[in-house]
Amino acid sequence: MTPAAPAPAGPGDVSVSNSVWPMYKDYLPIHRSFRNRDPATLWLAGGLGALLGVAAITFYQVRGRNRVSYRPPDDAPVRAARRQRGRATVTGRTITIDRPRSEIYAFWRDFGNLARVMENVRDVSVEDGVTRWTIRGPAERDVTILTTVTEEVGDERIEWRSTDASQIEHRGRVILRDAPAGRGTEVTLDLEYLSPGGELGRFVAKALQAEPHLQARRDLKRLKMLLETGEIATNANRRSAA
Amino acid sequence: MRALTWHGRHDVRVDTVPDPEIVNPRDAIIEVTSTAICGSDLHLYDGVIPGMLSGDILGHEFMGRVVDVGPGSTLKKGQRVVVPFTISCGSCFFCKSKLYSACDNTNPAEKQDMTEALYGHSVSSLFGYSHLTGGYPGGQAEYVRVPFSDVGPIVIPDGMEDDDVLFLSDILPTGWQGAENADIKDGDTVAVWGCGPVGLFAVQSALAMGAGRVIAIDEFPNRLALAGKLGAEVIDFKRTNVLEALTEMSGGLGPDAVIDAVGMESHGFAPDTVMDNIKQNVGIGADSAHALREAILCVRKGGTVSIPGVYGGMLDKFPLGALMEKGVQVRSGQTHVQRYLPDLLQRIGDGDLDTQFMISHRLPLEQAPTGYQNFRYNQNDWTKVVLKPGTQVN
Ligand SMILES: NC(=O)c1ccc[n+]([C@@H]2O[C@H](COP(=O)([O-])OP(=O)(O)OC[C@H]3O[C@@H](n4cnc5c(N)ncnc54)[C@H](O)[C@@H]3O)[C@@H](O)[C@H]2O)c1
Ligand SMILES: [Zn+2]
Ligand SMILES: [Zn+2]
């Protein structure tokens, strides 16, 4: 039998100042057997090596097979991609609301309504076609996003974009489609945040992006609750805590 | 008000907490007259369900008198109601499909993140349970805020005692749904694991649905005796090899349907149970599922596995091979309580279902911790504990 590569150092060879090792070293099979070059140990080492080899080959195989660049594009929305490239954070979510498209469109188009369902939004007001979103910022300081509607198709879609005066560069759109089997409307909300202006803006944009999918998801769910049940569920036992 | 609160593993206390008030339009406030401790509460007591916070008010089986209503409630002050443990909105796709425990709209939006991560989708809220299912304050208390009170609570006619109808809140419909999910045909042989309250109601329901034979499995003589009185044959799993016994008792075929009314804290000294318990102790696995594994091995080819027992996490060592090769179907779920209430109330009124037989202890709310301890550690004698918030300790 050919001897294997130089045996790795056994635990006894490691410079451990601990006085426990000497006491136990004779009981450590690896330590003892490497000194004795017991053939069983060599087999064991060989076996372990082979196992590691197979594991490594499998890892590269699986990785290769799953490499994204080999893949043709699919029909899923971009925001469901496992990885996003570029400096913008695109987030969004689709939810089915058991209400007609027209009702949801009307609710959304009246942007002031959205403060009721959007967690981070303290207030929404509209003046001369510019919507002013007041977002809760750190330490009681608010951040303002100013947007104008860039495209709208009745009962179908609304798109908006931040103006130059806005503290955060932002784009968003909501798309309404009839859900199959008479289940109401599929509502898709897409949000995009770009490089923010100023220290505060940066902070808030970061907070909004920290958990990119949470915001759209929670906001849509609250919208669904309000439109389907007339109220927004809370586990609070007192009005002051709700 | 006084309420039983959770503070950690095996630590529940009766504390004074703020009274609830009407928060949303469809709310009602109930003054609790009777509330029970459930096997599901034991999972919380043992700390094996994720998502509990210190101070949470427990209890999801309760009934009482309406003392306040919001403008959107259909209840009236003074009415006596039993409240389902599942909180359902009545208007989402799932509620309309009578899948009440899958309701989309009762779990607060910020609570749904964790549930989606763990289960893929969020489920309905439950009273007095994990924050994965809403973290709503529960019914082992003097008062409860009942949201969506126009959908859940069922009004109880005068003349019916609390103890006759209390279990409509959970375990009676749960046993019933467990049997319904077993897809019982006339004359079928049905095996039920667990003779706790849920298992006992599953036995009673299976017989009512036409099962020819029901075989009940547990280790506690007193619980087995209750199953025997209902008309089941019994197996003590500590004394008997269950797979062999069931195969023999069903002519070599295996039971047509099996019902797991044990859930995630299976007893017994089997190797898989030891492994599962080690994982539960270090918090890396939630479910100890010996009974379920056994049930899947026991069921006949092409049979049905019904799982009313509660599970919370990721199970391993699961006999998927047996499931697939035998062509077995599995049905499960938290109970869609609202679906069954009118029918079951009628059956209780007609005397078709006995609901009081399993109650072993009635205690004032103040003694709830004693109730928990005994229901957990003295299972032979403590088969079901009902708490009465209105009564004093004597
Ligand atoms: N699906 C639902 O909506 C729903 C509702 C209520 C309760 N549950 C669940 O149902 C289960 C039972 O509830 P319960 O109130 O009857 O609880 P319980 O703890 O009183 O009863 C469980 C019984 O199972 C027995 N058992 C334990 N290991 C066993 C084994 N290996 N084989 C056979 N029997 C065994 C125990 O001895 C005990 O009698 C729990 O998991 C509970 O969470 C589900
Ligand atoms: Zn219960
Ligand atoms: Zn619903």
Mean pLDDT of chain B: 95
Low-confidence stretches of chain A: 1-17
What is the strand tally of chain B? 18
Strand arrangement, major sheet of chain A:
1-7-6-5-4-3-2
**Total strand segments of chain A:** 7
By DSSP (H or I, 4+ residues per run), the number of helices of chain B equals: 13
In angstroms, what is the radius of gyration of chain B?
Answer: 20 Å
N- and C-termini, Cα separation of chain B: 20 Å
CATH topology of the largest domain in chain B: Quinone Oxidoreductase, Chain A, domain 1
Q: Kindly report the oligomeric state of this protein.
A: heterodimer
CATH fourth-tier homologous superfamily of the largest domain in chain A: START domain
Helix content of chain A: 25-40%
CATH class term of the largest domain in chain A: Alpha Beta
Any idea what the shape of chain A is? elongated
Structural notes for this entry:
The complex is a heterodimer of chains A (242) and B (394). Chain A is an alpha+beta fold and 242 residues long. Chain A has helices at residues 20-24, 29-36, 39-65, 101-109, 198-210, 212-229; strands at residues 89-97, 121-127, 130-136, 142-153, 157-162, 170-178, 185-193. In chain B, β15 (304-307), α11 and β16 (329-332) form a beta-alpha-beta unit. In chain B, strands 3, 5, 6, 9, 10, 17 and 18 form a seven-stranded mixed sheet that branches. Chain B has a six-stranded parallel sheet with strand order 13-12-11-14-15-16, sandwiched between helices. Chain B has a three-stranded antiparallel sheet with strand order 2-1-4, covered by helices on one side. Chain B is 29% helix and 20% strand. Chain B is an alpha/beta fold. Chain B has two domains: 2-170 and 335-388, Quinone Oxidoreductase, Chain A, domain 1 (Alpha-Beta Complex), CATH 3.90.180.10; 174-332, Rossmann fold, CATH 3.40.50.720. At the A-B interface, α6 of A face loops of B. The structure holds nicotinamide-adenine-dinucleotide and zinc ion (ZN) (2 copies). One zinc ion is lined by residues 88-89, 92, 94-95, 103-105 of chain B.
